[in-house]
Design brief:
The protein has a two-stranded antiparallel sheet. The model has no long low-confidence stretch (mean pLDDT 83). Helices cover 49% and strands 10% of the residues. By secondary structure, the chain is mainly alpha-helical. The protein starts with a helix and ends with a helix.
Length: 104
């Protein structure tokens, strides 16, 4: 699974935590986002789905006053980059936390 899609699983909780801690919005966009390749192909190029022609990527956005927006975006970017790093599964805190959330 791509690092971008790892951010989504399970139930988007990793993304929700990033958003809650930074106040920024985090979106996963690009080719491969939709599980059904036929559905993705039918949506590609339609209004609102233009991103499906791009490689899979993370988009971070926010609306804050000019004096704090840079700090918040940087904070969100650092958290997302940390979540995207490949980690040995035996030491993967985030994956263990995601699995725990699925059980409870």
């Amino acid at each position: 699974m791509s690092p971008e899609l790892m951010l989504l699983a399970p139930r988007g909780n990793s993304l929700k935590r990033v958003e809650a801690s930074t106040g920024c919005r985090v979106f996963i966009r690009g080719k491969g986002l939709i599980k059904d390749p036929d559905k993705e192909e039918s949506l590609r190029g339609r209004l609102g789905y233009e991103h499906l022609s791009d490689p899979l990527h993370v988009l971070i956005g926010a609306e804050f006053p000019a004096n704090i927006i840079g700090v918040r975006l940087k904070q969100a970017k650092e958290i997302v980059e940390e979540l995207r790093k490949p980690v040995d599964e035996t030491h993967d805190f985030y994956k263990k936390q995601q699995l725990r959330e699925l059980i409870y």
